C-alpha cells in the first residue's frame, strides 16, 4: 500500500489531479464525498450536529440544511471548530473503512486521499508516503469560483481567504503541482508524479 495525501485550496485543481491519478490506477478516497455521507440522515454525526446547533440547521425531511449551517459557522471560528470536531472523526472512520477494503482487494494499491483541509485540521501527515499540494494563485481560484461555480465575487474571496495560505501548504508538501497553466501542463506534472510514485513503491517509504 502506498498512501498519497492530495490537498490544495478551493478551486486550485485537486479534482483534475485526482482524476488523472485514478486513470493511472490509483484508488481515490475523497474527503468531500465522505463528509456528505457522514451527515446523511441517520448518521451519528448528523445527530451530533443537531444537538450542537439545533433543529434550525435541518430541513423538514431531517436532512442537513448546508446553507443554514454554513451561515452559522462561516464567520464564527468557535462554531466551525465545534462542527469540525463532530464531522472530521466520522470522515476519517469512513475513509479508514474504504482504505481497508482497497487493501484487501490489492495489497499493493496506491491510495489517494483527497483532503482539502489537510493543513487546516492539523491532521497527522506522517502516515502518508507522499503529500501532494495542488496550487494556483488566489486570483485564478477566485475567478474559477465565480465563473465555474457561480459564486458572487465577495463570497468567492471570503472562501479563498478563509483557508490556509500557500506557504502553509508548501510547508508540508513533498510535491507541488502548478495548476495555473493549461490542462496539458497540469496532466504532464501528474504523469511525472505517477512515474515518481512507481519508482518509489516498495523502496522508499516513510518510517
UniProtKB/TrEMBL annotation:
NCBIfam families: dephospho-CoA kinase, PRK03333.1
Presence of the UniProt keyword Nucleotide-binding in the record: yes
Broad class of the protein's primary localization: cytoplasm
Gene responsible for this protein: coaE
Keywords assigned: ATP-binding, Coenzyme A biosynthesis, Cytoplasm, Kinase, Nucleotide-binding, Transferase
CDD domains xrefs: DPCK
PANTHER family named in the record: BIFUNCTIONAL COENZYME A SYNTHASE-RELATED, DEPHOSPHO-COA KINASE-RELATED
Function: Catalyzes the phosphorylation of the 3'-hydroxyl group of dephosphocoenzyme A to form coenzyme A.
Protein source organism: Microterricola viridarii
Protein name listed in UniProt: Dephospho-CoA kinase
Pathway: Cofactor biosynthesis; coenzyme A biosynthesis; CoA from (R)-pantothenate: step 5/5
Residue numbers binding ATP: 11-16
MF GO annotations: ATP binding; dephospho-CoA kinase activity
Record-linked Pfam families: CoaE (PF01121)
Subcellular compartments: Cytoplasm
Swiss-Prot/TrEMBL catalytic activity: 3'-dephospho-CoA + ATP = ADP + CoA + H(+)
Family label: Belongs to the CoaE family.
GO cellular component: cytoplasm
GO BP annotations, alphabetical order: coenzyme A biosynthetic process
EC identifiers of the protein: 2.7.1.24
Stored InterPro entries: Depp_CoAkinase, P-loop_NTPase
Amino acid at each position: 500500500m502506498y498512501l498519497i495525501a492530495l490537498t490544495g485550496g478551493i478551486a486550485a485543481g485537486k479534482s483534475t489531479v485526482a482524476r488523472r491519478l485514478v486513470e493511472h490506477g490509483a484508488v481515490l478516497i475523497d474527503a468531500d464525498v465522505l463528509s456528505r455521507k457522514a451527515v446523511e440522515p441517520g448518521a451519528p454525526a448528523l445527530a451530533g450536529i443537531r444537538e450542537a446547533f439545533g433543529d434550525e440547521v435541518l430541513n423538514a425531511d431531517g436532512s442537513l440544511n448546508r446553507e443554514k449551517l454554513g451561515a452559522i459557522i462561516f464567520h464564527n471560528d468557535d462554531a466551525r471548530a465545534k462542527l469540525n470536531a463532530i464531522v472530521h472523526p466520522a470522515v476519517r472512520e469512513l475513509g479508514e473503512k474504504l482504505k481497508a477494503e482497497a487493501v484487501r482487494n490489492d495489497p499493493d494499491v496506491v491510495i489517494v486521499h483527497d483532503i482539502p483541509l489537510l493543513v487546516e485540521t492539523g491532521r497527522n501527515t506522517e502516515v502518508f508516503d507522499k503529500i501532494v499540494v495542488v496550487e494556483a494563485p488566489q486570483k485564478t481560484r477566485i475567478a474559477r469560483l465565480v465563473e465555474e461555480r457561480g459564486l458572487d465575487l465577495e463570497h468567492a474571496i471570503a472562501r479563498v481567504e478563509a483557508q490556509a495560505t500557500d506557504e502553509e501548504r508548501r510547508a508540508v508538501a513533498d510535491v507541488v503541482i502548478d495548476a495555473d497553466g493549461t490542462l496539458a501542463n497540469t496532466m504532464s506534472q501528474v504523469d511525472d508524479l505517477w512515474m515518481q510514485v512507481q519508482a518509489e513503491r516498495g523502496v522508499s517509504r516513510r518510517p
